[in-house]
Amino acid sequence: MWEILFSTHHTDVGLLYIILGLVAFMIGGALALVIRTELFLPGAQIISDPNTFHRIFTTHGTNMLFLWLLPFASGIGNYLIPIMVKYKDMAWPKLNAVAFWMIPVGMALVWLGMADFTWYATPPYSILSAKGPAAEMWIFGIKILGLSSILGSINFIVTILKMKHPDLPLMKTSLFVWATLVTSIMILVALPTFTAALIMLFTDRLGVSGFFNPNMGGDPIAYQHLFWFTFHPEVYIFAIPAIGMAYELIPKFSRKPLFSYQSGVTAFVLLSIVAFASWAHHMYATGMDFTMKTTFMIGTLAAVPASAMHVFNWIATMWGGRIRFATPMSFVVGGLVLFFYAGAGGVVNSMMPLDFLTHDSYWVVGHFHLFVMGLITFAFLGMLHYMFPMITGRMYNERIGMVTFWLLFVGVSMIFLTQHVLGLYGQPRRTFDYVPVEPLIVMNQISSVGAWITGAGAALLMGNLIYSAGKGKPADMRDPFQLGEQYYDYTRKEPHH
Amino acid sequence: MGHAMIEWIYVGVVVMLLVYLGAAAWDVERFLDHPPKDSKVIKVTGQQWLWTFEHEDGTREIGELHLQEGVPYKFEVTSRDVNHAFNIPDLTVLIDAVPGRINTVWVMPDATGEYLIQCREYCGFSHYQMRAKLFVEEGVSNVSAPIETQDIPVVLPATKAAVVSN
Ligand code: HEM
Ligand SMILES: [Cu+2]
Ligand SMILES: [Cu+2]
């Protein structure tokens, strides 16, 4: 049992990633429940100090992006990529373990520090107002997590391109392999910019430089460009692995071949390139001139057809299939529905005049959560259930699985669709309190009740998996979901290998 | 291959829709981006955690702003410390207040009343309370040349209810 901590085998490291991701998902979720409970009514409810509230949402956001989404995707990649490219392990197993073990260190810094400058860490606030050592701990935590991400990406790229079985052409590998490849390359291109900005932010805080400090002739807007040059592509870095998982599951559970492999690859490659042309759509309100705004609007809209191609491919695959709505498929299809709403909201954001309604309001919170919680988390949870027999040799309880799916789907829709409306009523994001008028109170309450339902669903889901890992029925390892095709061609490592 | 054909048609439709939406957005923004020549200038300064306004004649207001109906105003927005965002949700006015920069945004209030002004960019401890009141009063003089604002959705009915009442 404990040897897994010292193992460098790809499934062991993969399992560590998955467990760490799930732990982060749970504790980050607990913070979200605190936030929503606080906002159930206007006025202070369970938190008396706004600064505590700010620390909580900063840690919640940082945690969910860097300690849930990224590690979990790496975990599934660790499990599946070597199997899918028919190699015995990752290219560099030791590096793989090192990349993993950097994460708990970064995690400790982020959680123990609990910075208050939001996951943007925007200057001048982050230079002039944010308190140390929390701010420094956040900066170094993120640096370590970023480095881990880069090492992991290099390992994936080399494993896929160099260790792939010579008889297996790249164009015959699973689309999940393509998703991981494209994501890893994007990480290498996107991350250095913010890495540099973080060092500049740190020296600005020390007072030895003034890159972003207007009192020293610096320009705070420059930071936002560096930040979003990394983090707009990063939203696709979060999303593409989830899209790859949907490609993995939809044909299997539709019991029908994928509609078009070619279209999937094309859309991945397109998305990974166009994603770099839209970062300043987060900055329309910073005072950009008209030409810049137009340019970035076009860049943003240009990414939409690629996303639309994925959706088309999935629907065309399901069309006329004998779909089996077991838990994994339900999560993926639920995620697809939320993805559709999210994309529509995104198009609204990118249209310049409309963004002045939505920007920095609760609308944006609703928008990106439909991606990160809707599409991405749902696909992750679907994949987790699908891989459960492979990881544990047992089956989870299917009936409870479906209950958890419906709790999460209803809860998430309640939280985030209403937040779009809150945004249109003008409630700013990142606020400890709101104007006590009827529509705001009602919408906030629906959102909070949705959060509690989601919380109950997530707790039940974890209960189901933890219980079944020890006590579940042994799975039929040839075809645990009765899909009429071979499950992953892989023999489970017995304990004490 | 019929398959590929369907997908091409689908992508074509999506692209056409996006081109249409993009062009419409461009057309509206082109108008909104240019304040009318006869706009009155209001200097807006954000600081942790209040708003200060200065009229053309040099009068200053803190936490309150009095404007006249039917007059175009150009706000010159800046900040004294960290980033804020100057926001009048009912009038769809939103622009960041950034220290060291002056950003502009304009509006012509078309109904008298009391409106909420708030900060919409996280700025620390009392960000959530960084509010001010806008009073739009009846115009004293009949302001000359009316400008074409008819088909620009400057006021969203849906946001009316959020007018500050306390
Ligand atoms: C594929 C997954 C996507 C993810 C994960 C994602 C995520 C995000 C995130 C995290 C933000 C929040 C920025 C903030 O905190 O203010 C955001 C904002 C935005 N998203 Fe997306 N997004 C995705 C797709 C799209 C698409 C397809 C579009 C447009 C067609 C879009 C357009 C926008 C725009 C314009 C904003 C800025 C809103 C504002 O702050 O005013 N996004 N998105
Ligand atoms: Cu973006
Ligand atoms: Cu503020």
Question: How are the SSEs placed, and which strands pair?
Answer:
The complex is a heterodimer of chains A (497) and B (166).
Chain A: H1 10-38, H2 50-84, H3 93-113, H4 125-129, H5 134-162, H6 175-206, H7 220-254, H8 261-274, H9 290-301, H10 304-318, H11 327-350, H12 352-358, H13 362-392, H14 398-424, H15 438-471
Helix pairs in contact in A: 1-2, 1-3, 1-15, 2-3, 2-5, 2-7, 2-13, 3-5, 5-6, 6-7, 6-8, 7-8, 7-10, 7-11, 7-13, 8-10, 11-13, 11-14, 13-14, 14-15
Chain B: H1 2-32, E1 40-47, E2 50-54, E3 60-62, E4 64-68, E5 73-79, E6 84-88, E7 93-97, E8 103-107, E9 113-119, E10 131-137
Residues 232, 235, 281-282 of chain A line the site of one copper (II) ion (CU).
What does this molecule look like?
The complex is a heterodimer of chains A (497) and B (166). With 497 residues, chain A is mainly alpha-helical. Chain A has one domain (2-493): Cytochrome C Oxidase, Chain A, CATH 1.20.210. Chain A is built from 15 helices and no strands. Chain A has helices at residues 10-38, 50-84, 93-113, 125-129, 134-162, 175-206, 220-254, 261-274, 290-301, 304-318, 327-350, 352-358, 362-392, 398-424, 438-471. In chain A, helix 1 packs antiparallel against helix 15 and helix 11 runs parallel beside helix 14. The mean pLDDT of chain A is 93. In chain B, 19% of the residues lie in helices and 34% in strands. Chain B has 2 domains: 1-34; 40-141, Immunoglobulin-like, CATH 2.60.40. Chain B has a 5-stranded mixed beta sheet, with no helix packed on it. Chain B has a 5-stranded mixed beta sheet with strand order 4-10-9-6-7, with no helix packed on it. Chain B is of the alpha+beta class. Chains A and B meet through helix 2, helix 4, helix 9, helix 10 and helix 12 of A and helix 1, strand 7 and strand 9 of B. The structure holds protoporphyrin IX containing FE and copper (II) ion (2 copies).
